[in-house]
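Supplementary Methods S3. Complex input for the WT7-bound model.
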Amino acid sequence: MKNLQIKTFAEYKKAYQKSTENPEAFWDEIASTFTWKKKWDKTLEWDFRKPEVKWFQGGKLNITENCLDRHLEEQGNKTAIIWEPNDPDEESRYISYRQLFVKVSRFANVLKNNGIKKGDKVCLYMPMIPELAIAMLACARIGAVHSIVFAGFSSSAIASRINDSGCKLLITANEVYRGSKRVNLKDICDEALENTPSIETVIVYRRTVEPTSMKEGRDKFWFDELQKVDKDCAAEEMDAEDMLFILYTSGSTGKPKGMVHTTGGYMVGTTYTFENVFQLEKNDVYWCTADIGWITGHSYIIYGPLAAGATTVMFEGIPSYPDYGRFWEICDKLNVTHFYTAPTAIRALAKQSLKFVEQHDLSSLKVLGSVGEPINEEAWHWYNDNIGKGNCPVVDTWWQTETGAIMISPVAGITPTRPTFATLPLPGVQPALMDENGKEITNLHEKAEGRLAIKFPWPSIARTIYGNHQRYKEVYFSAYENMYFTGDGSYRDATGNYRITGRVDDVVIVSGHNLGTATIENAIDEHQNVVECAVVGFPHDVKGNALYAYVILYDDVEPTEKLESEIKKLVSDTVGPIAKPDKIQFVSGLPKTRSGKIMRRILRKIASNDTDNLGDTSTLLNPEIIDEIMQEAKR
Ligand code: WT7
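Predicted complex, serialized as structure tokens:
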């Protein structure tokens, strides 16, 4: 581990201090531990007002040389990826660094053979199988930009993402196993492909033996394509600021934002944080349970761990199949040392009998991680006591798709932890807590609550929203002058430790999935009987938050249960099953301000059954609607 610099709390403090006093020198030193084809000329150029951030300008590299080639000599036979299938009776796959290198190079040639060149966009809609990792690294090898769409998203979600970035090629699998179910991904893609004029070729990996519909001239099987190419593929020379990938995340308006990550800074940021936060040692087995369709999977299943030369586990299945002990069975079987998951999974597993845990030997575990949403006290303790047996530091890692890498988190075994606190900023991260007047609360020795912003650029910050730099500026750089706004609220204690309290905008985190309420509202509005609707989040004991939809129907329409399920299905089909509202209330109106804005704050309170103090309602045009909504609220 070349970047494992922090080994004591004093070293953490020293690194942090250096990173704020001289950020360029700090990151220069870390960046020098990677393989570059040409060294950079300028470490950092930035202006949050434009906004513009450039790291390691003039530097030339290929991230796959850092994730693969450079490990071959010393540890070519080390396992890079352990793949654990959905069905425990199917065999695990162990792929060494050398094997992965060959597979990636070969598939990179498949992409080239299908006309893909540097800068072209490639959409991946795939299950959690090694071929997903191979395809993404193959894109990076030739400088193509991958845009991975989580394989639980609907056909229209795929189509809008493909069209937004103009993807030329789509890679998918015929089917995916999910617990006891089989889902036909290719059928979902075919539906999406009816409206995606930029796609020229589709490559289909056969995960199952079931017949697959293939369109002549457009669709090709993965294995057939492999036969046509050889295994050597030189890595394309990329500029540090060349685009590595686009990944869509929800926003406050209906349209998902294509966050753009570039090559050099992203690599440096993910690898440095991976090694230091988790404190990985040479023979450790690291498992992050996220899906690669999310940023956690990009940064901490693939790029960070592979650049660090670690062994990373990829799991195809779900925590409840064949039973609720599956995670622990895998930890036992693979001797997992580092386990990184989401609070929603912890809460779901904590609800089950402890026998699912006790049946398995968890003594290999050394470090536990949490990510995606605030972890509540109860879940934290359950995780710490029953999984870590009180011996494994819990790292509660706060970050975002936009930040690319972990920002605020304990360093495992080094930073004192405190339940529900992400604790301290990592070196290179300069948080600012902002009060309601938009002023920074600078006293670190007094507890305070506010909104979380970041004052200085870090290497892995997203550079723009694809095709919409103006929106990037508005969403992240307009709330506070010359600062990046996170969209999160935060509490800071008198020792400078941060607890993230949750989103302060119209994004709701459901089971760790970041959902924009506007997207869901747009879907519901499509129903022929719906006039208007508003969707808000409310606390849920397993999912963290669930969705509550207030729906206005046309006058002549009866509110029925059938209509409710139609609306749920509509959301599931257009956005994805994860976005299905838990509760739907039919209302005759929505509380609106004089300027016509829905007052979501009130709707959130009603949905959360927290109606003692609704706050200021004096700007409402129709205050009488509140009583009606409250009386009929679904509890
Ligand atoms: C939002 C970003 C970053 C990986 C997964 C989510 C919430 C994330 C934590 C944490 C409290 C957290 C924030 C953030 N969040 N980690 N440890 N404690 N909240 O990425 O989909 O971009 O969502 O997730 O609200 O803004 P994402």
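The mean pLDDT is 95. DSSP finds 19 helices and 30 strands in the chain.
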